[in-house]
Specification:
This protein has about 450 residues and is mainly beta. It is built from two helices and 31 strands. The strands form eight sheets. The protein has a four-stranded antiparallel sheet with strand order 4-31-30-29, with no helix packed on it. Strands 5-6-7-8 form a four-stranded antiparallel sheet. The chain has a four-stranded antiparallel sheet with strand order 9-10-11-12, with no helix packed on it.
Amino acid sequence: SISSTSSRPPRPGDDSSCDGFVGLDATNNLCVVPPAGGKVLVDGVDCPGELASLAAANVALREQLRVDADLIKRTACATGGPLDLLLPWQSLATPDGATPTDVEAFEFGGVVMIAVAAPGSAHSLLHRWTPLGDPTGTTDTPLGLFKVSQLIPTSWPFDFEAFTVGGPATSTPAVSLLAVANSFDGLSHTTDSVVYRWLPESQGMLEFDVLTTEGARDFEHVQAFGSDFLVVANGGGGAQPVASVVYEYDPDHGRFAEMQELTGVGDAHDVAVVVGPGDGVPYLVLSSGSLFAHAVYAYDHNQHAWVQVLQALPVPLLRAAVHPFVLGTTQFVAAATTATDAGLFAWHADGDGGSFQLVQELRGVQPLAWQHVRVGSADHLVVATAAAANAMGVVPTVYAWRHGRMQPFSALPLPSPTAVVTDLEAFVIGTTRVLAAAISNGNDSTTVLHTWNDACVR
C-alpha cells in the first residue's frame, strides 16, 4: 500500500511544500511528496520499497499492453470459446490488503477515475486513467493504466457514489460529487460519511459536505422533477434497527439537508433506483441483507415526499443485490429472492400504472452483485455469486440474453478457487468496454479490470 505520514487528509492542489500528498506529476508519473520535501517518482527514479515494486509492475504492464491484443483475442477465443469472453488486463491493489466491497467508475470533466471502497482500511485510493502513449500495432485493449491520484480518508467504507447535482434539469450550476459511505470509526457506527467535490483546476477531490450516518452501507443519487436526492442505506450495527435517510441538495447553500427517514426496513444494506417506464417516477428499492426484508418507495411530486407503496416486487424474501437494467424497451430488475436463488423481473403496465412480474428463476445463483452490459448487439448479465463451482470447476457467472431468457454463457476468470467477487462495475474508456470485479481473496484481495473479447461475443 501507499501511505501518507501526514497528520491531515491530503488535499488536492498541494504542491512540493505539502506533507504527504500523493498524486500525478506533470508527466503523469505517480509521485509522493514526503513531509521533508522532494519528489519520489514511481515510474522514474528513487523508488524505495513498495513504490519500487509498483514501478516495476507498471513498466511490465506497459510492455504487455503493447502486444498485438487482437491476435491474443483471436487465439484465446479459438481455443477456449466463450470462457475467454473476459480478459484481465490490470489489477488494483487495496490498502492494507482489505477486501473491496464497491468499485465506482466515473468520469468528471473528461477524466476517467475509479474509487474502491474496502472496509478495514484507513483510507481509500482514487485511481486516474493515464494513457501510455502510441501503441505498436492495432489493439482494442486500452493502452494505458489506472494510477493512484489521491488518498481519501475513510472509516470502514462500504460504498462510493459518484454523481452530479444541478445542471440543465434543475436550472442550477452543475457540481460533480463523490460520496463515501463510512460505517464505523473505531468506536461507534454513528459516524460521518463525507461528500467530496471534484475540482477541475487541481484535478482532485476536496471535502464538500459531511453527513452523520448509522453504519452506512450504500449511497444512491436520484434526480427527479428538478430536485437532487442522495439516499443512504443505514446498516446500523447496534441493538436496535435504524432507518435509512433521504437527503435533498440545497443549491442555495451548497449542502445536503435531511429530507425524510425511510422506516420501512431497518438496517438496510442496499438501495436501488428504478425509474418507472412511461411516467418517469423514480422508485427506491430498499433491502436488508440480514433480515430478508425490503421496502419500495415512490416519489410523490405533489407531496414532495417518498411514499411507501404496497406493490413492489412479488417476492416475500427479497434481499440485497438488486440491479435494474433495460433490454430493448422493457425495464428489468435482477434480484436475490431467497438465500440460494435469484430471479429476473420485468415491468408490466396495467390499469394501476404497472408492476414487476417474475419472468425467470435463476436457481443456485446466490448473487452478491449484478451488472448488465451490452457489447455490440449482445446483452450480457454478469453476476457476482457466492455459489460453489460445478463439477467442471466453473461458476457460470456470465449470462447471455437469448430467446427471451438469460442463459449461462461464460465465466468470470478468478485468481483462485476460493476467490469471491463482491462487486461489479461496467464502464467505457474511449470505445473500449471494461468490467471491473472487486475480488475477496484473503491477503491477495484486489480489483481486477477486464476487457471484453469481441471475437467471443456472438
